[in-house]
Amino acid sequence: MSLMSSPSWQDGFKNMLELINSLPEQFEYTKASDIVWPHVKSQDIKHIIVCGMGGSAIGGDILRCCLMPLAPVPVLVNRGYELPSFAGKNTLVFAVSYSGNTEETLNSFEEALARGAQIVAVTSGGVLAKRAGEEGVPVIRVPGGLPPRASLGYLFAPLALAAEGLGVAPGMGAALQETIDVLKRMRDELAQPGSEASKLAARLKGKITVIWGSGPLVEAAAMRWKAQFNENAKSMAFYNCFPELNHNEFVGFEAPQDLMDRVAVLILQDHKEHGQNIKRTAITKELLHSRVPEFEVVNSRGDSIMARLLSLIYFGDYVSVYLAREYETDPMPVTLIEELKQRLKESGR
Ligand code: PA5
């Protein structure tokens, strides 16, 4: 039995719901922490790379989307063993691994060290904390013992605040406060029985969910919805964003209707979306009407891009745990991931 599984799926549901409820306080915890930001001169930073996998990588994507309209430097999320060739001493590398034992992230961390990059580790412990300690790399410690995906506040907030502290991400602290306020208001609605999130979960039961972000700025939200549907609800989901999906994916909806009948399309609509993407969404709905009569739509809330993204994410987190309840499955364990990691370990390197 997995470490994270509960005595019954009902217990697992309660535990995951509680963890989802705790997201605003996770952000508050980080804001209040006495984190000592590394001494790096902002003019020396030419790029930011966030290295991580799965639940530890998504905070990097949120940072990437938040900084797209704001930051003077590009942000890239590296989900793999090797760093891109441009990474070097002018690169700020966040090595993020909740467990501290994820081999892809550890490998990238070692490469970053070898190339003289400016590194910050974010972890609850493991080999990453140990190696960072040995090498004098600053470590932001997050509370341990949780599923990585239920630690989003602990894993994302330090990236945003560190990037602001280093002068490459203006306004992150204020955006974080707005986000906390928006999420608390959402929690008051969504944690209630019979909330909009639980009604949406009931409609998505038995479907393969295709999640479409209204534009590239909300891509991280679409990615998170997909991953939460996979890991919490043990269900199939896929994501894409406008306008790219108009150049390929939506043609796939000409597939035989019996296949399409199993698909639900859900649009994550940013209320500040580019006008052309809004038009595209409307035309796409018209063009696909005979194949997909109903589209589900979730609207963003808040003003800053961070609050808008996190509001979409928070709604999806609730839907995913309610969908797990629909399927009477425990949202806590991710047995396949653990088994795969175990087998890799046994096979040696
Ligand atoms: O949700 C999960 O458990 C996974 O996606 C993990 O986050 C992923 O396997 C990476 O592990 P870690 O977050 O410990 O680096």
Structure, described:
With 349 residues, the protein is an alpha/beta fold. Helices cover 46% and strands 14% of the residues. It contains 13 helices and nine strands. Strands 2-1-3-4-5 form a five-stranded parallel β-sheet, sandwiched between helices. A four-stranded parallel β-sheet has the order 7-6-8-9, with helices on one face. Strand 8, helix 11 and strand 9 form a beta-alpha-beta unit. Helix 1 runs antiparallel to helix 12, helix 3 crosses helix 6 and helix 3 packs antiparallel against helix 12. The longest helix is centred in the C-terminal third of the chain and has 22 residues. It is globular. The model has no long low-confidence stretch (mean pLDDT 94). The structure holds 5-phosphoarabinonic acid.
Number of strands: 9
* SS content category: alpha/beta
Approximate strand percentage? 5-15%
Bound molecules: 5-phosphoarabinonic acid
Largest sheet: 5 strands, parallel
Widest sheet, order of strands:
2-1-3-4-5
User: What is the radius of gyration computed over CA atoms, rounded to a whole number of angstroms?
Assistant: 20 Å
Q: Span from first to last CA?
A: 26 Å
Enumerate the spans where pLDDT stays under 50 for 5 or more consecutive residues.
none
| Order of secondary-structure elements | HHEHEEHEHEHHHEHEHEHEHH
Helical content, roughly? 40-55%
- Structure annotation, total helices: 13
**What's the overall geometry?**
globular
Compute the average pLDDT: 94
Keywords:
binds 5-phosphoarabinonic acid, alpha/beta, 349 residues
Which SSEs are present, and which pair or pack?
Elements: H1 9-21, H2 23-32, E1 47-51, H3 58-67, E2 75-78, E3 91-97, H4 103-114, E4 118-123, H5 126-135, E5 139-141, H6 152-165, H7 172-190, H8 196-204, E6 208-213, H9 219-231, E7 237-241, H10 257-260, E8 263-269, H11 275-287, E9 295-299, H12 305-326, H13 335-346
Helix pairs in contact: 1-12, 2-6, 2-7, 3-6, 3-9, 3-12, 7-12, 8-12, 9-12
The protein binds 5-phosphoarabinonic acid.
5-phosphoarabinonic acid is lined by residues 53-56, 97-99, 102, 105, 147-149, 231, 334, 337.
